[in-house]
Amino acid sequence: MTAGDERRRMVGTRISTLREQRGMSLSALAREAGIGKGSLSELEAGQRNPTLDTLYAVAGPLGVPLTALLGEETGVEGTSPHLAARLLHVEHHADGTTTEVFWLHVTPGGVRESPAHGPGVVEHILVASGHLVAGRVGEERSAGPGESIEWISDVSHTYRSDDGALAVLTIRSPSR
């Protein structure tokens, strides 16, 4: 079994376990996540390679941070068109909140739209190089090197860069 096969299997097991703990059927989670039931079944079986978009879509209805699905191993990566994220650190706070820290690479050109992450989830981006336009759909703001953007990510939000950008993203999720 390759490392990729093992990663897919572990992600699938995490999704299935969380879904069952919440008493959700496969159909209910697929509907709430906006993905096909067959696709979710393949994800849970470890037969499909999950994209960041799919993982975020599933994490929202489950009420968990992305790392609850990806795992908390430093260096784990997720990709989607126009964006790659590498996990740097996860901190679980005494009050039950979780802070995830990612290194982002936003490629020049396209727009990546991310689904809502759930009530009270806050994203904060500090741009290291390049220029980035990000935030809630219709409320995006721009930032250059050394500048930051913050928003509540309980609705769809986008990331865009015309020249490519590197940034540190923190996602703070409330306790559930």
From TrEMBL:
Residues of the HTH cro/C1-type domain: 15-69
Example of a GO MF term: DNA-binding transcription factor activity
Alphabetized InterPro entries for the sequence: Cro/C1-type_HTH (IPR001387), Lambda_DNA-bd_dom_sf (IPR010982), RmlC-like_jellyroll (IPR014710), RmlC_Cupin_sf (IPR011051), TransReg_Diox_bact_type (IPR050807)
Entry annotated with the keyword DNA-binding: yes
Gene Ontology CC annotations of this record: cytosol
SUPFAM superfamilies: lambda repressor-like DNA-binding domains, RmlC-like cupins
PROSITE patterns: HTH_CROC1
Keyword DNA-binding attached: yes
Keywords: DNA-binding
Matching CDD domains: HTH_XRE
Gene3D superfamilies listed in its UniProt record: Jelly Rolls, lambda repressor-like DNA-binding domains
Protein name: Putative transcriptional regulator
Lineage: Bacteria, Bacillati, Actinomycetota, Actinomycetes, Mycobacteriales
